[in-house]
Amino acid sequence: MPRKTPKLDRRSLITGAAVASVAAIAGRDGVSVAKAEGVSAPATTNDIQVANRGQYAKASLKQESINVAAVQSQLYSIDLRDRAKTLKRNLDRVLRLIDLAQNSPEEWNGERRWGSKVDLIAMHEFPIQGFQPWNRKELNQIAFELPGPESEAIGERAKRYGCYISWGCYAKEKDWPDHVINMSVLTGPDGKIVSKQWKARNILGLFGDGALIGTTVYDVLDRYVEMYGWDAVMPVARTDIGNIAITAVGNEPLLYTCLALKGAEVLVLSVTGGSNSEVAKATARSARIYTMGVGNSVSPNNIGFPESSGTRDQGTVIVDPRGTVLAETDNHHEDIITARIPIAEYRKTRRVQELPMALLLPVLQQYQPLFQPNAFLDKLPQTYQEAGELVRKRMGMK
Q: Could you tell me the pLDDT band of residue 4, with boundaries at 50, 70 and 90?
């Protein structure tokens, strides 16, 4: 994460961003394209890396085109009654799927005897840990340190194949004791973590009386911005194969639009639970970016759930900026799909989405959602039920 920055008032920052955006439309000084990735977190919204008149921050490309793969894998949840054994089982399976995506399974002596090298492998939200309604104590038992043994094992594969791998997990951060963060991770071809991207927010109302307890940016927004800056709220990894954003937030078109405006060229929608395929098609077309909607397959061995849980919405898909499907699973079994992205040509011809900000900002500024940010700064719920009570209370429902 970038270094800490001074504490800033959220409302004044949002207002400042609005003024800057309207000024840019009017032809005056607006939000500038920020420096390349690796600089300190911005102190104000004026330093957010966002497109300005079609230009946005990027790193130089190492090749003209890239091959991408989306892995539709089973959910195998860690069993806390036998944590070590089931964690090893799940990690070994993920490593095998990476080998299969690279056409280099162990049975072929690790040789690529079929297909081509893949430059980016995308996995869903919880490929190693799975998903269960764990309480906070249990979540902390299965959450990963980053870096840690699991990320290093994936890093070894990324280095072996000279590729990037995106994957999700529950993670711990030393600056956030007792929090378990819903994290998207991008591992690079040097075997190291390139980007850790927190989930922006949890969706509400899908879990009956309960709610999710994994920490998101929205749950701790003010402290998060104080520590990491506004640019990190919606991060984009600027790599030598393109600008990559990963999100496990489902059905959030404004979020996807903002990631595209920040320069995302490849967006990975990694929601475990099946809201990826149709959303990916719509997002690619509207935001004019390559979109990979990758979900889980039918999972007959996931503890406590029917085997078809999370397999709605037509599976896994890779879509180009016109909304044309480049690859798509035709069933809900475990599968891997691949496509080729002419990333250099895309950069030459890309037209960043035009938004009439002078029309939209007055509405967005005045709109107030029922559920305000920073809920987990007030109280850290221990169970799904406590989280549900917190949601209802903050929304004035009881």
A: very low
Map the chain to HEC letters: CCCCCCCCCHHHHHHHHHHHHHHHHCCCCCCCCCCCCCCCCCCCHHHCCCCECCECCCCCCCCCCEEEEEEECCCCCCCHHHHHHHHHHHHHHHHHHHHHHCCCCHHHCCCCCCCCCCCEEECCCCCCCCCCCCCHHHHHHHCEECCCHHHHHHHHHHHHHCCEEEEEEEEECCCCCCCCEEEEEEECCCCCEEEEEECCCCCCCCCCCCCCCCECCHHHHHHHHHHHCHHHHCCCEEEECEEEEEECCCCCHHHHHHHHHCCCCEEEECCCCCCCHHHHHHHHHHHCCEEEECCCCCCCCCCCCCCCCCCCCCCCEEECCCCCEEEECCCCCCEEEEEEECHHHHHHHCCCCCCCHHHHHHHHHHCCCCCCCCHHHHCCCCCHHHHHHHHHHHCCCC
Residue 237 structural domain: 66-349
CA torsion sign for 260, 291, 38, 10 is: positive
pLDDT at 307: 60
Tell me how far apart the 2 most distant CA atoms of the chain are, in Å.
Answer: 62
Do the domain assignments include residue 119? yes
pLDDT tens-digit series, residues 87-139: 999 999 999 999 999 998 888 888 888 888 999 999 999 999 988 889 999 99
Q: Quick one: pLDDT band at residue 31, thresholds 50, 70, 90?
A: very low
pLDDT of the residue at 347: 96
Tens digits of residue pLDDT in 298-355: 667 776 666 666 656 668 999 999 999 999 998 788 899 999 999 999 999 999 999 9
Give just the sign of the alpha carbon dihedral 273, 87, 184, 229. Answer: positive
| CA atoms of 60 and 376, how far apart (whole Å) | 39
For residue 223, tell me if it sits in a domain.
Answer: yes
User: The domain that contains 170 carries what CATH number?
Assistant: 3.60.110.10
Range of weakest confidence among 199-208, 210-219, 326-335: 199-208
- Name the domain count of the chain: 1
Domain membership of residue 34 (yes or no) is no
pTM score, two decimals? Answer: 0.87
- In this predicted structure, the answer to whether residue 22 has a pLDDT above a threshold of 60 is no
